[in-house]
Design a protein that fits this description.
The chain is α/β, with parallel strands linked by helices. 41% of the residues lie in helices and 16% in strands. The protein has a 6-stranded parallel sheet with strand order 1-11-8-7-5-6, sandwiched between helices. A 3-stranded parallel sheet has the order 3-2-4, sandwiched between helices. It binds NADPH dihydro-nicotinamide-adenine-dinucleotide phosphate.
């Protein structure tokens, strides 16, 4: 079998097109313009690239977008004051503090200071709790697992995963655990694997849906994949690519793609799979926040 390639870029464009249209409708109906504030502290070049692309995507969607580039020496108190001001600003529906923060700032304290109803990253305990108790329609779900779930629904043609087994490799708070909760809420029978799991290959072979969120290049071999499975590769790993020339690198996922694609039913590539979905879901969450504030039903994807 050769797997169907799940085109994350195409799905992400479709999500953004829906967000754009719903934003125009929300504005016309209620006068509400979704507003997003992105806060970055320090000059980490990778973070600056992410922040710029988030700002650009927000403008493309028709959002009001504000970016706060604060110096690396910003104190925790000043950052908390900035978050408080944004919490109180009615023009802002989504607040995103770009992580990591400089070492002198307590990241968790800052994340928990964001008003839960503006926490479009879905990291506040209130949102984690809502997701964990199945109150998904009221929660903000972290963008990467939310985007992975959209890909799964579209690949399988259904949001009801009754009778299907899912294995999530990785138990981080930003990917593995919320992913497992989403799959559970969709009626899959879910197992979370991690570095202490025994016989991971055998466990993976039981999965109708296999989600890899490990951060280890191509760790999941083709023969760990159940024939016909839906494979979602969240991993983004940069490895040396001497075949492209001296000092060159390339991106690979956590799944050994070529082997897995021969066995799986559908599979996300890296790059071009889960990656583009993350920013699209950030826009979807911000729109949802604005819709909730205006008492309008947000779109589904
Ligand atoms: P973390 O490092 O926080 O978590 C990795 C998880 O993998 C941990 O639970 C760890 O287990 C588990 N793990 C590590 N080694 C093994 C092993 N040998 N066998 C089984 N499990 C193992 O990573 P993240 O969740 O933040 O990210 C995972 C990957 O996803 C990374 O490649 C990251 O770059 C990518 N990512 C991609 C995003 C996107 O937009 N597409 C967004 C976010 C992340 P334990 O808990 O026991 O240590």
């Amino acid at each position: 079998m050769t797997a169907r390639v799940i085109d994350g870029k195409e799905v992400a464009e479709d999500v953004v097109a829906t967000v754009k249209q719903a934003t125009a409708e929300l504005k016309a109906k209620t006068g509400t313009v979704p507003g997003i504030a992105v806060v970055i502290v320090g000059e980490d070049p990778a973070s600056q690239v992410y922040v710029r692309s988030k700002g650009k995507k927000a403008s493309d969607c028709g959002f009001h977008s504000e970016t706060f580039e604060l110096p690396a020496e910003t104190s925790e108190a000043d950052l908390l004051a900035r978050v408080e001001a944004l919490n109180a600003d009615p023009a802002i529906h989504g607040i995103l503090v770009q992580l990591p923060l400089p070492r002198h700032i307590d990241e968790d304290k800052v994340v928990q200071a964001i008003a839960p109803e503006k926490d479009v990253d879905g990291f506040h305990y209130i949102n984690v709790g809502k997701l964990g108790t199945g109150a998904i329609a009221e929660a903000f779900v972290p963008c990467t697992p939310a985007g992975s779930m959209v890909l799964i629904r579209r690949a399988l043609g259904t949001g009801d995963l009754s009778g299907l087994t899912a294995v999530v490799v990785g138990r981080s708070n930003i990917v593995g655990k919320p992913m497992a909760n989403l799959l559970l809420a969709a009626n899959a029978t879910v197992t979370i694997a991690h570095s202490r799991t025994r016989d991971l290959p055998a466990l993976c072979r039981t999965a109708d849906i296999l989600v890899a969120a490990v951060g280890r290049p191509e760790m999941i071999a083709g023969d760990w994949v159940k024939p016909g499975a839906c494979v979602i590769d969240v991993g983004i790993n940069r490895i040396d690519a001497p075949e492209k020339g001296e000092g060159k690198t390339r991106l690979v996922g956590d799944v050994a793609y070529a082997g897995a694609a021969e066995i799986a039913g559908s599979i996300t590539p890296v790059p071009g799979g889960v990656g583009p979905m993350t920013i699209a879901m950030l826009m979807a969450n911000t729109l949802a926040s604005a819709c909730r504030a205006a008492g309008v039903e947000p779109p589904s994807y």
